[in-house]
Amino acid sequence: MKKPIKIGLLATVFSLSASFSQAEIGITDACQEQVDELLEKINDNPDDYTPESRAKAKKHLIAAKAKRVEARKCRRHLMNARKELRKGK
After folding, report:
1. For 46-59, how does the pLDDT look when each residue is reduced to its tens digit (9 = 90+)?
2. Does the predicted TM-score (pTM) go above 0.70?
């Protein structure tokens, strides 16, 4: 009798975690799109920023791409990249 309860409980936990991860996919996709757009902007207009600020921003953008599963960290690295570019204008 305990096996059906355990199986039902595991199925419920799995379905809840799957729905949360599907919701975060949309967030991380949006972050990755913004990372790509900012990289493109940096590469298209290199004279708008100092070499140092471009290097620091690219470092943050690479970290954001590496943290694509963790939406909060992706956005934090993206924000730091933008901050570095503003400093070096």
Report:
1. 999 999 999 999 99
2. no
Domain that holds residue 68: 26-87
Measured CA to CA, the distance from residue 27 to residue 67 in angstroms comes to 12
Q: Per-residue pLDDT tens for 52-81?
A: 999 999 999 999 999 878 889 999 999 999
Q: Is residue 3 part of a domain?
A: no
| Neighbour-count burial of 6, counting CB atoms closer than 10 A to its CB (0-12 exposed, 13-18 middle, 19+ buried) | exposed
What is the distance, to the nearest Å, from the Cα of residue 12 to the centroid of all Cα atoms in its chain?
A: 28
Residues 21 and 65: their CA atoms lie apart, in Å, by: 17
The total number of structural domains in the chain stands at 1
CB atoms under 10 Å from CB of 58, counted, come to 17
CA distance 78 to 27: 13
